Request: fold
Amino acid sequence: MIELKGLTKVFDTGKARLTAVDHVDLSVPSGEIFGIIGYSGAGKSTLIRLLNGLEKPSDGSVEINGQNITAISGPKLRKARQKVSMIFQHFNLLWSRTVRENIEFPLEIAGVGKEERRKRSAELIELVGLEGRDNAYPAQLSGGQKQRVGIARALANDPEVLLCDEATSALDPQTTDAILDLLVDINKRLGLTIVLITHEMHVIRKICHRVAVMEGGRVVELGEVLHVFQHPKENITKTFVAQVTETEDSAETVRHLREQYPEGQLVKLIFVGDQAEQPILTQLIREYAVEVNIVHGNISHTQRGAYGTLILQLKGTADEISKALAFLGAHDVQTEVMGDA
Amino acid sequence: MLETLFPNVDWADMWEATLETIYMTAMSTFFTFVIGLVLGIVLFLTAPNQLWANKIVNWLTGAFVNIFRSIPFIILIILLIPFTKFLIGSIRGPNAALPALIIGAAPFYARMVLIALKEIDKGVIEAARSMGATTWTIIRKVLLPESKPALISGITVTAIALVGYTAMAGIIGAGGLGTLAFLDGFQRSREDVTLMATIAILVIVFIVQFIGDYLTGKADKR
Reply:
């Protein structure tokens, strides 16, 4: 669906040369929600703008649905952009137009007739849950509602790809979740391919199938979201993963936990995917003579399964504890002994 | 009452002069709006990193605007006498004042248009581009509607300045309240005529301001 080959963008400001995107190769299949995460300045904004030709690459190519975006210009590029639409961090609605008129704007650009526009905008308003707000101006809407208008507007011309430029970064956590749910719903209902950029791992975890981590214009890590959560390789990825899992394994926390739970043994369990949904703990308690005390727990749900950590205090004989650990290991639960109390 | 306060005022003359001033203001405001808008849009779009980024056109337009904005109006009228003669065939009467009024005010308005357009959120223009809009569509459906309140309040300020300019043009014989106040009032020492002409000008200015404020408020949905 989307193929990036050796994509490079160098900004030449006269004084300095800045490589914003550095030889990026990516391939996003149709219907996938693909996330790109990175700190500001990592090149993700430039990368997403290369996808619809808002920026021209210095080198490399972008192919969307077999069409080379980098090689076309003028009317052909404008036509292609109607199939690769975009939503923005600050919504970028026209304040001079009502909700309905904003949604009809891309249809006007595409030359759709008035009646058809009216019909389409009514459908879209319903799709994004803004019934009754047709004639409101953006100034009268909340941030979440504005982004819903942005999404409806982006969907107007039946795009194949939706690009999300930090689409939830200006929203509060609750509204963020509602907008993300809407994106997943659209992805499933319309089979739309979604590419989103963000600096929030929460967004990646919640809706993405695969993730690319960007740093210094390069993709430093790429994979299934669950896999990346389970085995982050790069330091930057570990930092991002820690944003949502809050793994309690800093020396400080471990020491603190040990002080609080001086007896027995502290064990950290990492569940991934299916195991997170199995009653492994119940079995453990039934079959082994150990006392189990849950000290800390955390489960993150991703689009392709759950990922969780659990810190347990196990009390019992050394023999029983090691048997219990072996049992967990046999069920593919990663265990990590956090030291004797 | 009026006869005692304004013994020397010929009301028919005063009314005719008022109409001439209104005519000059309306015509020059209209052409100033059109020309200033075009110049302002060209200035905006040819600036670096804009849709028509072009150093030469931007520099030339900017130079034209700055030069004509800087020439004092009374001198501009005199400088433009040959041009006016060529264009209108005469240098007297309300029509003869128009070229100078427009050339003096359009660059002024062009600057206001530029400021108004710069106020537009860049993201909105980017959004329109991402939808596949042509530059022409962006001008018509994004730039103009999104800057409408500022464009209207700008042309209001310009129209009021133009009322003042017509009075100045009156001194060299353009007609209107300026000529009346200068020839009939000042040169013949009839202060009441000057005063009445001033009141008439003030009324015109207040009406223009009122209409401008009303339309600006109506256009602003922010």
Remarks:
- The radius of gyration of chain A is 24 Å.
- The longest strand of chain A covers residues 17-28.
- Chain A has a mean pLDDT of 88.
- The CA atoms of residues 316 and 322 of chain A lie 10 Å apart.
